[in-house]
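Subject: Chemotaxis protein CheA structure
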Amino acid sequence: MPNSKGTPLQFDLDDDDLKLFLEEAEEQIELLDQSLVQLEGEPDPALVQRIFRAAHTLKGSSATIGHKKMASLTHAMETVLDAVRQGRRAPTSDVVDALLAGLDALRVLANEVVTRVDSGVETERLEADLMAVLDGEAPALAPADVAAPPVYRVPAGVLEPFWEDIEQGHGISFVDVTIASDCQLPSIRCYQVLQEMESIGKVAVCWPDRDVIESGGGEYQMAALLVTRHTDEQISAALKAVSDVAEVRCKPVPPGEAAGTIEGFRHEPQQLPERRAETAVQRHDSIADGPRPAAGRKASQSVRIDVERLDGLMNLVGELVIDRTRLQQVREQLSGVLRDSNLSELMDNFEETTAHLARVTDELQDQIMRSRMLPVRSVLSRLPRLVRDVAVKCGKKVDLLTAGEETELDRSVIEEISDPLVHILRNAVDHGIESPEERRAAGKPETGTISVTAWNQETYIYLSVRDDGRGIDTAALRRKVVEKGLMSREAAEAAPDDQVVQWIFMPGLSTAKEITDVSGRGVGMDIVRTNIERLNGQITVSSTPGKGTEVIIQLPLTLATTKALMVSANGTVYAIPLVSVTEALSDRGADVHTVGGRKMLRLRQRLLPMIDLAAALGDHRPRVLPTDGYFVVAARHGDRQAAFIVDRLLGEQDVVVKSLGDMLGARKGLTGATILGDGTLGLIVDIASLVNEQAAMAVPA
């Protein structure tokens, strides 16, 4: 078959439909990505059912827009998943591998809807691989288990509202309804069946739960306890009038037995049509879970908001915050001017109004910030697949544990931390975790453990990646830096181990014995530090030989605002992010020394180079330090520190970060600007780049 790559494609959807399709496809693909890896280790029915639904939803949406390849591939995946659901095939590694290969192709195919160009992905081979795994080993469930009658849990008290009807002669019927397996809209038919039941009686409880059915979550099987005057035959006739209803089975339930659990109708395995078999698993779920939670209703309490709209709102709130600060300054100025005038009542009203405006602005800013927050789960959920794939390539066994998935941070930060986390995890698996043989020899379990934990502290989020592997080889790092001419042998040998482990962030430095497609080129951790620094974040690493390594990332919760120490230098106001500031002191209290012709600040047993902040940022105007003294701000980035000379300390402030784009030109050391309360511009300092250049910026004595 000729390769169709590059062929223009057409789909049956407009711009609004495209947006909906992409959002749904992304959601379902991410669910599959996370769940398929779990399937290999936890083949429980609820998980299998969740995966099947995701594949089924993708099949339906892709078929609706006319994406035949995507629909065909998801159908093949659905077939395999159905075999797993029915216990005809165990979810072994080859099954999961085939499903993951299909998933990878689905990502590419979904993107074709955006590009409208054929990517060249041939699904026939993938579908053949999926069908081939169906001929694999023994089923996970014995046929007898599949055929066992399901048991439904009746929540306590659900019949209480109907006792009056029962006492007046109404009966209780257990009703089991099967939708035809070739029905294209089973959720709608389930909803119609529920409505029909309510027209002939009162539904005490149903499976799936009413909220699930009403939100479109119904599938090919449903059951209910119906309080009604009608006979079973009349119930059956009424419900069979609904289109696509294939079978209705009823049985009376004595009031005394309509509590606890109710045994449903047995389905013989050989009589189970494809769709109907799904309900067998669904019903087994009901044994443990009872009626399904109101997932659909919960979802309806939130709405999707375009990120551009949120960004627009955030910009407007930023302007409001700036005006609030300006108004507060005007109030203070007026208060000083009018202190002796007879305008106290007017001033009181003005102060009350500005105070109220400040409160409202703060609350509005907080609400907008919260609306931009997403749980870090959206990033962590992608990691199990990554760890699995890298571990397979490296011939290792690794368990990934995650915690703090509900920790929230700004969407813009979430988009930026994915790549650093990927690099750290790849290194942890490739370099940190030992092979099963090495671990056994070291008295460790064959399977290594990597834990990723997220938590909030003040206005920062912390991400910890810890492994129980071999730890960082500091001797190898010392040898490498000497070989590459980055440091003298004497300096490398003299450096303490906790400093040496930070060298893994040096560009081009790797202790890997060979370069593979996983790692070994020495660029991964360098990229990590570069990305984290660009976000005004910090990254630290600690390691214990034989016990493992921990990397901790500290990031601001949002990139839209930041807490900063405001300073002035040579007539310009600068904002230094507080995350970098370790100490601020006057020149009179500073322990200043001259070393090698340069001014150095002795601070906590370390000598820090002193840098004139204005000069370091390209201010070449004549510079005269205040005669009544200046100030020194000590800042750090990673394990490096420097002291910056400024004229005045103006206090701490939440600043709204504004991009200056091309206005900054080629000036280094600045990440943006902020509008101050008096309307003037303040420049936000990029401490990372300045500290990196500290040697060149040191002030001569």
